[in-house]
Specification:
The structure is a homotrimer.
Chain A (H helix, E strand, L loop, with lengths): L2 H7 L9 H5 L4 H31 L6 H27 L22 H5 L9 H22 L6 H23 L4 H5 L7 H19 L19 H20 L7 H30 L4 H15 L8 H24 L8 H19 L5 H30 L5 H6 L1 H6 L8 H13 L1
Helix pairs in contact in A: 3-4, 3-6, 3-10, 4-6, 4-7, 6-7, 6-9, 7-9, 7-15, 9-14, 9-15, 10-11, 10-12, 11-12, 11-13, 12-13, 12-14, 13-14, 14-15
InterPro entries (chains A, B, C): Ammonium/urea_transptr, Ammonium_transpt, Ammonium_transpt_CS, NH4_transpt_AmtB-like_dom
Family (chains A, B, C): Belongs to the ammonia transporter channel (TC 1.A.11.2) family.
GO biological process, one term (chains A, B, C): ammonium homeostasis
């Protein structure tokens, strides 16, 4: 998705005086197809946000499931609005120093110039509107990942503040380092669709928040790791399948055209990695825990998808199977590791997006000769370190100013009732029972 | 979606003797892309019907949730069949008096003429099959909106009758006034994808039915507005996201081609209005009710989408934010207003589709200089008055003939058991408890 | 989907020395569109697997719903991996004896030859990657259908073994008879998108397994057919709508190009048959059972879709309504029939996919003059007999080796807890109650 870089290279649509002239040119059908695919891909990435809402809600307790949904709706909508206002032109600032730039408010284009709006001032096989909407759908992803990590005990307003700044400022800055033509792209770093720039950013921002926030009550009581299961595996399943579905647009659209060779290749590597991730995580849970845990199998799919994202267009199909399989093993081990470290990540998002995001980016350096492992390592470390430090500082500041954690009473009663006055399933007796039981214990 | 109007204008595909000749012409790739996009858009509008079923079912009591689904499945299937039989040729009758016309039974084309079936007798950048299926997916929408309004106390057979006539007769008549080239299009009225012609039609038909039907038992007891919460906020969330996803096809497909400039522009305005609607409704509920109610936030998304639908291709991105935001405020106030007026609309569909549909159509007159606010007002009032009066008369007739409301016993026990012999969730103790509790009270 | 046959016919993209030369040729935009549609269709077929998981899970007891999901995730992922490894080249072996062939391991193409990877060595309007991923998404379908039939009492490992062999060996063999250019295609058999080759294969493999496995405890106790309702009609509804949505890609993509005339025609026949199936099954249940059962209406949609699949591109719209309507009647009668025969098919998959698959294939012979009913009969009988016998033998072998059925205790407690250690909805009291109640009875 290196737009700034490609802008300089592609210019075959330039030089038309009128829209009519451009539309009559031989290259116009190709432009139409490329543009249409980017729009469809934007729609697919959009549906990933339903995937995130479903999987994160399904994997948390029923008494906190409305809260998860509310946070995700908020951050998606606020994310797209702030991306239109400032984020897009931070991420793609044009000529800049390689570390931080800002092209100005809005999406940076004169809408009254129809020719330029198409291509000639822009140089890509899509309109500026298509480019913006595709990128905007990506933007909220990082914050949505954090939403899963902090669920069950975060103050709503504190998350809203943190998420808005993450999506409108922190995410576009590291994005500009690579996709905006900044110092990482100069260095030869490669992250096709964002194993690091999207997923690891979300995972390590989430880790920072979890370290400040602490674990949910009862998670690590009496020296043991207590399992607090999610409330609906079918809902989580719907979420994971929709994420996979949307990932065909996330990776496939990152080709930034409908180029038949590359887009179809990316579909294949993406699917193979997801499959290998699932099978590997199934085997791993069987070997390690002697169980065939369903949520872990679902996380295996996501692990494979996150892993292949950095190199979906350059990694061979066989290597895609390997990358996905290793991600499927890694995610099980990482979730176990963070549990032992008493890092409470209710939905496993730090492992899925953080750890497997790093793995996928490094894998490009391992499996593709033209990329350097060392450069991949530098790029990944730079992005996650920057994100972790800024997120830690920001969330600490919010903690100091207004607090980040709900009271024990609110946590016990559930955030749905306390923060929203809603119950996810008001007619099902079990939920009241659950809330009461938890309250009794604490 | 002014097909009849455009038919006269576009004719570049005319004049081919054989399909082969047409397929060898330079314009054929563009025709392929345009046609493919309309088909994909038809698929997206189809998925909106799952969205409607999910959101309406989720926002009603568990004991009535199968009934909602059944009604929506019926009306979607009956709607497409009757649209093929009569509706398509009422909506697009060809030359007619501007108020009512009928081109004949079926979809009005000689399937044995392959050249004409493509374009030359038709004059658009799509086949007649694509045109039909895209329009057919729209047709059931209005009746599906009514399904939400009347839920919990309507007799199934009465709704089936009413819905079938609405979708096969009333909806296509007002549709023909504008999209079929009738008197409203002559007048200069503008409703791009149907804020009025689809959504307000559904909302005001629903209002007519609710006024005849009366409120659910217990809704306005002892002079208070009693909240009867929906049974599953996650299910409603799935529905709202799918509606938004499908709306990219609803609005994007209404361009009636894959024209890069317009389709991508429509994606942007549609998304911005949805986001602004959500944020505005969140703020409004916080200010008015001191709560962050999740279903209201979801309705804010829908309000923004309904609002932008009339002008998605002509309203500026900034104005789209304003249109969506105002819709997000309006929907909260309208739901409160109808509650005070003792109009019982369980899912808020009259406010979302009726009120915000009117708002969106008027907004075109406010924000786009070339359209007259007065004409927009006339057009909107004409369509909703006609729809309301005919719906009121028709539902009154059905009430007189066979009744429209279930008995108190059936209402208390729930329509799922009474009308279908089904329980949505037979293994969850809560539902029996709910039914029992409601029965005790009445 | 007769790839081998068309390979010989279409060769207009052959003969380019470099990719650049091909991309500069006049046929390239058409190639791009065709290829893009196949990729999008592959995505739509993918989402059918979420449809299957949702409908099968929703129509089974809550205590077995995780197990259904786990089986479907496994078979989808293992199916795609084995299809890449062996299945694709069994199904499309190139020149072969018409009964069985094997082109070699992998997907049979030199990825380092970019020109060939596009078309010239391949001869279709899509890349080999697009062809593979579209076919791979189909492959797991048959085994997923079996998953529904055997639910509630099958040993997980036994199903995994059976499903893997079905998807990697049995399905591609009968597929090669027709779509690989084998003896059935030579005979003049027609099965456009797989009423027989996909759906009846799944249905009759499922029948073989059910006969070996026996009924669930309590299903046919005391000489009566006891209804064991599914646990979530909303979840099943989500599944059925997603299946319909995906079917536009299943049938529409089977055109193997974005040919405007055929793809749009297929969308129309597919939708009309689904609608007619639903309305007919609603009427049938009302006449036969005096009830308006929702799950049966949902199965009516699927019945219509399965029925039209064999002839979606050649059957007239009016005949599509007839084919769908008859399928909608058939599915109700077949489910009743199998219940009386004490064949326990919890989700009705044998009736939906097996019986309606056969009906749809025969319907091509009845409604389309150029196809022989007798040939259709021979083809269908050959495929289902072969599949049934091999499946019966294989599942018997597995029964002999490791057993196929869980113990009575495991069945009573539910497979979710016993096989996975998961509960689908751990906070809802009803489920524990259900498990306890079932355990008490047995």
């Amino acid at each position: 998705m290196a737009i700034a870089v490609e802008t300089a290279e592609i210019s075959q649509n330039d030089g038309f005086a009128t829209v009519e002239e451009f539309m009559a040119s031989p290259g116009f059908p190709k432009f139409m197809i490329d543009n249409l695919w980017i729009l469809i891909a934007a729609g697919l990435v959009f549906i990933m946000h339903l995937g995130f809402a479903s999987v994160e809600s399904g994997l948390t307790q029923a008494k906190n499931s409305v809260n998860v949904i509310y946070k995700n709706v908020f951050i998606l909508c606020m994310g797209i609005l702030t991306y239109a206002f400032v984020g897009f032109q931070i991420m793609y600032p044009g000529d800049f120093n390689g570390f931080f730039g800002f092209g100005g408010f809005g999406i940076g284009f004169d809408a009254s110039d129809p020719v330029g709006m198409l291509t000639s001032g822009y140089g890509m096989d899509m309109t500026i509107w298509s480019d913006f909407i595709f990128q905007a759908m990506f933007a909220a992803t990082a914050a949505t990942i954090v939403s899963g990590c902090v669920t069950g005990r975060v103050k709503l307003i504190s998350f809203m503040l943190f998420g808005t700044i993450l999506v409108s400022l922190i995410y576009p800055i590291t994005g500009s380092w690579q996709w905006g033509g900044g110092w990482l792209s100069e260095l030869g770093f490669y992250d096709f669709a964002g194993s690091t720039l999207v997923h690891a950013v979300g995972g390590f921002a989430g880790l920072a928040c979890v370290l400040i926030l602490g674990a949910r009550k009862g998670k690590f009581d009496s020296g043991r790791v207590n399992i607090i299961p999610g409330h609906s595996i079918p809902l989580a399943t719907v979420g994971v399948f929709l994420l996979w579905f949307g990932w065909f647009g996330f990776n496939g659209g990152s080709v930034l055209s409908a180029d038949p060779a590359t887009v179809s290749y990316v579909f294949v590597t993406t699917a193979l990695a997801a499959c290998a991730g699932a099978i590997a995580s199934m085997l791993t849970t069987q070997v390690v825990f002697r169980s065939l845990d369903a949520p872990m199998a679902l996380n295996g799919i996501l692990a494979g998808l996150v892993g292949i994202t950095a190199g979906a267009d350059v990694i061979s199909p066989l290597a895609a199977v390997a990358v996905g399989a290793i991600a499927g093993v890694l995610v099980v081990l990482a979730i176990t590791f963070f549990d032992r470290m008493k890092v409470d990540d209710p939905v496993g998002a730090i492992s899925v997006h953080g750890i497997c995001g790093v793995w996928g980016t490094l894998a490009v350096g391992l499996f593709v000769p033209q990329y350097s492992f060392f450069t991949q390592l530098i790029g990944t470390l730079s992005v996650i370190t920057f994100t972790f430090i800024l997120s830690y500082a920001l969330f600490s500041l919010i903690k100091f100013a207004i607090g980040v954690r709900v009271t024990d009473g609110v946590e016990a009663a559930g955030l749905d009732i306390s923060e929203h006055g809603n119950s996810a399933y008001p007619y099902f007796a079990g939920i009241e029972t659950e809330a009461a039981a938890t309250a009794d214990k604490s």
